[in-house]
Amino acid sequence: MLISRILGTRAERLAEPLPPRGLRVTLYVVLFLLGVLVSLCGAFVQTLWAPAGLVLALVATAALFYGGLRATGTKLGAGIPLGGWFLVLMVLLAPRREGDLVLEASVTSYLYLFLGAVAGVVCATLPTRSGFAFGVPPLDGQRAVRNGRP
């Protein structure tokens, strides 16, 4: 019950109107940059303050993905920051010429990668009222228009 108060019910999420297209495009750019920043900060926080840092980094990651979904009203709102988050982590996983790694091969690093990706995929598959809302039935008025009836 507390979770539905914080995150909103399915009916509330589906009833929210979509922001105008120009605002959504701006939000996508901002969300991509936030995904990059959260990924970079999370990579260091989860290592510095393990295990509490791992929890903090995962909460920030999931909050960004879910916030993007709710702010834009589209699945892309969760997918865009996930792309920025993942892109930075792939760069941080690559060894440098000197042999240094930003993300070491440790349990906390692997948990950050796996659970962060799971959080992004879960948020990207939540139902929305966008034109690409797979699995969400249209409203009665929209169904009649799609079938060619007034």
Automatic annotation (TrEMBL):
<dbReference type="InterPro" id="IPR046095">
    <property type="entry name" value="DUF6113"/>
</dbReference>
<keyword id="KW-0812">Transmembrane</keyword>
<feature type="transmembrane region" description="Helical">
    <location>
        <begin position="51"/>
        <end position="69"/>
    </location>
</feature>
<feature type="transmembrane region" description="Helical">
    <location>
        <begin position="107"/>
        <end position="126"/>
    </location>
</feature>
<dbReference type="Pfam" id="PF19608">
    <property type="entry name" value="DUF6113"/>
</dbReference>
<protein>
    <recommendedName>
        <fullName>TIGR04086 family membrane protein</fullName>
    </recommendedName>
</protein>
<feature type="transmembrane region" description="Helical">
    <location>
        <begin position="76"/>
        <end position="95"/>
    </location>
</feature>
<keyword id="KW-1133">Transmembrane helix</keyword>
<feature type="transmembrane region" description="Helical">
    <location>
        <begin position="25"/>
        <end position="45"/>
    </location>
</feature>
<keyword id="KW-0472">Membrane</keyword>
